[in-house]
Amino acid sequence: MFKRSSRIRQKLVIEQELIFDLIALWFAGFMIINFWKYNSFLTLSLLLVWLIAIRLWYEKEDILIFGFGALLGSIGEINCIAFGIWTYSNPNMLWIPTWLPFLWGFVSVIIKRVYITMDQNRLFFRLK
User: Fold this and answer.
1) Chain centroid to CA 124: how far?
2) Which of 36, 27, 19 is closest to 100 using CA atoms?
3) Are the C-beta atoms of 55 and 62 separated by less than 8 Å?
4) Domain of residue 111, residue span
């Protein structure tokens, strides 16, 4: 009986982690959709979401993943814009909005967290 309640408790923790990650991602998307014209406000809002998230569930590699995601995502965006693939209607830093690197970093961490949570709890089908 103890094992069963332990598994149920573990499943609830997993579900809470996934729900929290998806709510944070939804909130970032909501902010972008509604406030994309206000670069400074949106940048500060995404930074605040990141700081709250990192405070609630900090893992050592999250800051590194955030930095790499922000850097590589922004470089990719700038290259695509430089080659004329797309443009942003409200850029203010190297052809991109200032909030975009924060979004790339935040999404990189969310993808890592969701993947690890699902993988550790065997929520993926194994291809082996």
Assistant:
1) 20
2) 36
3) no
4) 12-120
Q: Is residue 127 part of a domain?
A: no
pTM: 0.81
Question: Which residues are CB-contacts of 50 (< 8 A; sequence separation ≥ 6)?
Answer: 66, 102, 105, 106
For 79-107, write each residue's pLDDT tens digit.
999 999 999 998 998 899 999 999 999 99
Alpha helices, DSSP H, located in the chain: 2-35, 39-56, 60-82, 100-120
Per-residue tokens: 47: 């930074």
- Residue 2 in any domain: the answer is no
Amino acid at 93: M
**Domain assignment of residue 66, yes or no:** yes
